[in-house]
Structure formats: C-alpha cells, structure tokens
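Example record used in the benchmark description.
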Amino acid sequence: MSLTRRGKIVTAITLVVLLVGVPLVGGYLYLRSIGVYGSSSPGETVEVVIPKGSSAGTVGDVLEQSGVIKSSRGFRIAAFLNGGFEKVQAGRYQLATGLSAGDALDRLIAQGPEEEESFTVTFPEGSWLTDFARILARESDLDEERFLEIVTDGTVTSPLLPGDVETLEGLLFPSTYQVGLKETEEDVAEKLVREFEAQLDEVGFSDVEEQGVSRYEGVTIASMVEAEAKVDEERAKIARVIFNRLEEGMMLGIDATVSYALGEHKTSLTQSDLEVESPYNTRLVTGLPPTPIGAPGAEALDATAHPATGDWLYYVVSDCEGHHAFSESYDEFLQNKARYQSLECP
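Model output (structure tokens):
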C-alpha cells in the first residue's frame, strides 16, 4: 500500500524528530546520570573545605570525594550552565551528601563558609617594604600596589615614626603570619606594625636610648645590623661598630645601605654603585640613613639595644662562612681584608 502525500510528510517529520531527538534525550540522560539534572537525595552531613583560589574542577573534585555529588564533571558543567561560581568562597562548609551538582553549587553560594580559612605568609628578616608587598600578593589575593601604598602614605602609622616620616620601612615585623581571607591590605599592615611594637617590648628595646639615639634611630641601626650580620653571635659586635663610628663622626660605610639606595638586593657592588648619590649611601654621607633599610628581626633588635663592649671601628668578612674580623685600627682592617681576599671561596 502506498503512502499518501500527507502520510509521507508525517513520516518525514517523525524521522527528523527521531534523528534529532534521540541524541537530545541521550544527552539529557547522560547529564542526569552525572548529577547535573535531577533532584537531590540529601543524606548525612559532611565537612568540606574549599581551598583558596579553587577552580570549578577543584571544587568538583572536593565535592565528589566527600560524597556530596556524583561527579566532578557534573559540577563543572553545572557551574558553566548555571553561572555564579565566582561567588563561591574558600572556607569550611557543612554539606549533605547526595546532592545534585546544581543544588551543591546553590548551597555553596547561599551558605558561604562557616569558618574563615587563612593563608600562611612568611616575611624574611631584612625584607624591604617592596618585598613585603610582593610576598603578600604572591601568597594571597591581596593587591601588591595597594599594600605598598598603605605602608608608605600614612594610612597605617606607628608611634616610633618621627613627625616628618610616613613610610613604615623597617617597622613591620618579619615573621610567619596567618592571614584571614577576609583581611584587607590595611588589616595586614596593622598586624605587622603591632607585632613589631610587641617585639620591641619583648627585647627591651628602649635600652637603646642609653646609646644616645632615639628608638627610631635604633631601628635604623638594627636594620643595618640585620643586613650585615651573617653569623648570629656577631650582631652585637656589628652594632657596637656602628655606635662607635657614630661617636667618632665617621661615615658608616655600610654596603647594605648602598644596595638600598640602588633599589636592588645586590650581592656585590661595583665602583659606580658605591658612588651613587643618595642620602642612603653611607659611603658618601656621614650619619644614619633617613629611614631603616629593611625589617630587623628580634635578634638584630636585641643586639642593637644591648651592643657588645669594645672599641672596634672596622669589620670585614674573614672566611667563606661569612664570619667577620673586627679591628680598632685601619691598618689592621687592611690586613684582615687582604687575608680574606687571598682565600679561594666557592
């Protein structure tokens, strides 16, 4: 029996629907099988921690491993289709198992973390403000330029600062900190300044005034001690050399101040480096630099507040491990220098 014209048209339409519809149905069933579609069947509650900076794939992996959803791939697809993933915050959550990917995403966005997570940041001794800003930005979501602005424009201040100084160079304590995800650049700066003040009290830094300098000037000296000392037990002797030179009206001649003037952490200096015109170049300018040249740690602060006893005016590296030879006369200094230069250090 032959089909009528109308029957042929109906048959053709049916074939088109089947050809297009079967893949669509198959795709839907697949998405349902991985939890993109379908209803949730909430089970037990589990704890889930979303790490800082997680992608949708990472969050999906965490949720799948915790039994919250069926498939990490399903979560990635739901995040793409539904949108809003950028609102998911790092932190700790309590979520039910057996959720669809869409429901899991919705609950992460709606609940927010129940406990604030933090990141760990370590600032080494001797760090400049530029180092603090760079390290903070590298280890967190905070902004490098914003932090640097805050610690140099008077937004955050310290009781140690003279009236004409706004920069907090040398007044942030170098250590390891836990910084909360909700803390701002200003919060971190305040934390580091307050810790520095606490450390000053801990080492009895007010004793430095017995050396004839203010506490701020003492911090400047401690920053040079931090930069120059390579061996712990020599810090107090280097501090004494600086105090002795100040009393004699001599130039301090500290290479670390030249590096600071150049704005580079240099391990060796050229003759042209040593001639840079800057108030920080203590090879050309008598007295202390205008500000500290880095962040002194507790040992350098203690050594400066309680310097060793001695009449030394000079010191120079004496061996390949970074020890120094200390001397009272320039002739002895030259002999010590020549002795070191004769060594073949790697």
